[in-house]
Amino acid sequence: MKQLLFVLLAMFVPSIAFASEAAHQTIDLTGHWVGYAAIVIFVLAYTLVILEEQLHLRKSKPVLLAAGLIWILIAAYYASHGMPHAAEVAIRHNFLEYAELFFFLLVAMTYINAMLERNVFDALRDWLVIKGFSYKQLFWLTGILAFFISPIADNLTTALIMCAVVLAVGKDEPKFIAISCIGIVVGANAGGAFSPFGDITTLMVWQKGIMQFEEFFALFLPSVVNYLIPAFIMQFAVPEGSPKASTGKMTPIKHGGLIIVGLFILTIITAVSFHNFLHLPPVFGMMLGLAYLKFFGYYIRKSGFTEIDHSDIPTGHNIDDEGFDVFDKIAKAEWDTLFFFYGVIMAVGGLGFIGYLGVTSEFMYGQLGATNANILVGILSAIVDNIPVMFAVLTMNPDMSQTQWLLVTLTAGVGGSLLSIGSAAGVALMGQARGYYTFFSHLKWTPVIALGYAASIWVHFLVNG
Asked: Could you tell me if residue 119 is inside a domain?
């Protein structure tokens, strides 16, 4: 046994030591054909991402391919120059960052899907429909709810839920649907900017350890301003009157639905506590929170409180095997989104290892200055997508004050509202409200949204400067 242990140590220790040493040996490839090829691959892949709706090609596919090709080029070049482990160490570092993000989001998505299955969000939607609010009241209600739910449930899920309300009550008023969807996107993105759970970009900043959980709440007032200014102006374009009163019954919340909401809040508290008090990555607190849900799911199944739709069960199928299953909720996670994040993080990480992010950082933060650079980040987020932009900023890791880190967190979060393609919420609603909410219906209100964007930056410096 000792001999076997010695052999294993002899095999791995030297390579680990060499890999560690090689990690510090990087070659500037920004002027080499490898660098140019990597840029072309990334641009082509992201062009396909932007054209997702037109091509009906899931956005994860091109970035997964791009990430693989970029790292093949890097690894082959370094291996040919006698540094085979340099790329290995770099790619492991990027993959670890992705793994933390992946498991964190997977738990959050599992909880959201569990709440969907227990009819928690359907009940909220039906309550709003049955109450008989006017179009103007519904415009404000859906926007405000999007603002306050997104810090917990993330901006994408929140936008989809509120859009379902708008579609249910506004089918006779296309103009109401279009303008309400814009209000929902702006509200969801603004609400997500002041919480680590509200957007992928804020989550990345928190997991990187740049800001503590409670420090994000300094962005609350700027986020409020970011939503209120465009919403106040847009309300004058909302049609008068009220939708036809609904005679439908309210969907009942299934047994345990509200308890799952409580367990999700407890999971968030656990993740924050792991980070603040135990100095462990918050993802480990989220994984512990998944155990809460799994044990409660076991209780639901064993106590017989499982509602089964018998019409969906094939003849001869054993219904005893059906019911509330946490793994079923995991299976329904947004896998395309999770793989998209993988492709983006690995591809941008590869461009950073080549040297492009260093050059970009020098130009943006060295020549333009931190404030101008961080405002530009928000504008770029509307065109490209805030995830690769924020990951690039985090990889550059410019030397900035806390005020500037808060600024870039704000702009990356709310900048995507400038265009419908600038955020996951906007892209999702273009699909959900197809024919009502379009790129051009949103573009018409971009100047008003930009006014809110500028005002939120001003308020940020006023409050946090």
From this structure: yes
The DSSP-derived string for 96-110 is HHHHHHHHHHHHHHH
Q: Is residue 429 part of a domain?
A: yes
Rounded-to-integer distance, Cα 355 and Cα 372, Å: 22
Res 284: pLDDT? 93
Instruction: Give me the mean pLDDT over the 136-141 stretch.
Output: 92
Separation between Cα atoms, residue 291 and residue 263, nearest integer Å: 10
What DSSP state is assigned to residue 321?
G
Query: How far apart are the C-alpha atoms of 229 and 453, rounded to whole Å?
Result: 9
Residues 330, 348: Cα–Cα separation, whole Å: 27
- The span from the CA of 111 to the CA of 88, in Å, is 35
C-alpha 401/C-alpha 141 separation (Å) is 36
200 located within any domain:
yes
Residue 75, in any domain of the structure = no
Q: What is the Cα Rg of the chain in Å? A: 24
Q: How confident is the model at residue 122 (pLDDT cuts 50, 70, 90)?
A: confident
At what angle are helices 86-117 and 2-22 packed, to 10 degrees? 100
